[in-house]
Amino acid sequence: MVRWLCETAHSYTLREEDERINQEVFGTDSLQRRLHPPFSCPDMSPSPTVPSSVEYVKAADVKVIAALGDSLTTAIGANGSNILAIPFEFRQVSWSIGGYGTYQNVITLANILKLFNPKLLGPAPVMTFHGSPTTVNETGFNFAITGHNTLNVSDQIRTMIDTFKSYPGLNFQEDWKVVTMLIGMNDICDYCKDKTLFSPDNFIHHMTEALDLMMNEIPRMIVNVVQILSMKPLRDVQRPTLGCQLQKSFCSCLVQPEENSTELEELVEINHEFQRRLEKLLHSDRFFKKDFAVVLQPYLENARPPTLPNGTIDLSFFTADCFHFTVKGHEELAKGLWNNMFQPEGEKEMIQTLSEPIKLICPTKEHPYIYTKPRLKSSSPTLKHFSMNALMSLLAVIHYL
Predict the structure, then answer these.
(1) For strand 221-226 and strand 176-182, is the pairing parallel, antiparallel, or unpaired?
(2) Where are the alpha helices (DSSP H) in 68-179?
(3) Which of 67, 59, 343 is nearest to 180 (CA)?
(4) How far apart, in whole angstroms, are the C-alpha atoms of residue 186 and residue 163?
(5) Model confidence at 277, in pLDDT bands (50, 70, 90)?
């Protein structure tokens, strides 16, 4: 641990330094890791001219990447099962914005997009220490904060807006931006402590407020809102270690109730209500205009914890606290997000379990753009009533001709 924090680069040969960095990032898994095979698509070029419509943004058109959220996005403890890693935020390998190395080193959404645009602004470059002051040079555009609830996310957005406006080389008005937002699990973890503050009503209120803020103030942006997980299965992730006992402190409302208790049943229902309300909010054109779109990416909604062939939980996906994901888990989250971005509403892939490695897809020749246009419901009672009335009137006119 002392060597990890204090030894300097001049003490090593270049190869030793590379091995040390790998050990820091990947922990005990570093010696077993191999480079990922290259990933490429038939068309990796940008549009001939910068698109003006959010409906026609290709991966290579994205100039800026950012992330909002909590400890799942700060990637706390992500380098493995060592309890000493828990205070460290491994932002450089975070599923939605980590910028460590290249795609072949670690799969993140940022590293995938860097294959299409190597000059992408915003990937998180290094790890940070939870609770310590940070700068954008350390976090990149990963504005997530460990421990934040949905009520805090507008503060993250305000920081993001201020950063975008002042960051060297970023054209706030012209550059297309992709931000990924996963927030709400801490609301569920804290629900039993204040059922009003962390209610579904307040969750949706704060989500709406946050999305309105972005829509009103940030031009040329696509917002991935990732559906929150069903959290009850995380109760099954257990080790007989001190680290696993930390669950009881930061997610006591989930971990402490007895199985089949009314408290647990209520929390599970609240979890599902969060999901239903978020889907209802976003399956409309409420947050869609010419240069801005919010898209619900639902792939994690029903995901079960990964298991080994014998049916036990595969703990290699989980950090020492038995709650957050290691790099192995972050990579699967990244691949699922990328795939959802290039699948239309109603046809987005849903992960059943992280045990089954996700295969990345390429944008299609027919639709090489990130899917952003909502599929509006055409079966509303008002529209059907109007259409039926119009049809009856037309038939009456024909009858008298």
Answers:
(1) parallel
(2) 71-74, 109-116, 136-139, 153-166
(3) 67
(4) 25
(5) very high
Record the tokens describing residue 90, joined without a space: 């491994």
Q: What is the DSSP letter of 275?
A: H
Lowest mean pLDDT across 23-27, 254-258, 269-273, 356-360: 23-27
User: Cα-flanking dihedrals φ and ψ of residue 307, to 5°?
Assistant: -130, 160
Rounded Cα distance between 70 and 325, Å, is: 13
Examine the pLDDT at 2 and tell me if it is beyond 70: no
> Cα–Cα distance between 397 and 382 in angstroms, integer?
23
Question: What are the CA-CA distances from residue 287 to residues 2, 69, 208, 318 (Å)?
Answer: 48, 19, 9, 34
Annotated catalytic residues are 71, 187, 324
Read off the DSSP letter of residue 32: T
- Asked if pLDDT for residue 211 goes beyond 60, the answer is yes
Nearest to 217 by CA among 296, 135, 286, 160: 160
Residue type for position 251: C
Cβ neighbors of 181 (< 8 A, separation 6 or more) are 67, 68, 69, 153, 210, 223, 224, 225, 226
- Report if pTM > 0.85: yes
pLDDT, position 276: 98
- Rounded-to-integer distance, Cα 224 and Cα 34, Å: 30
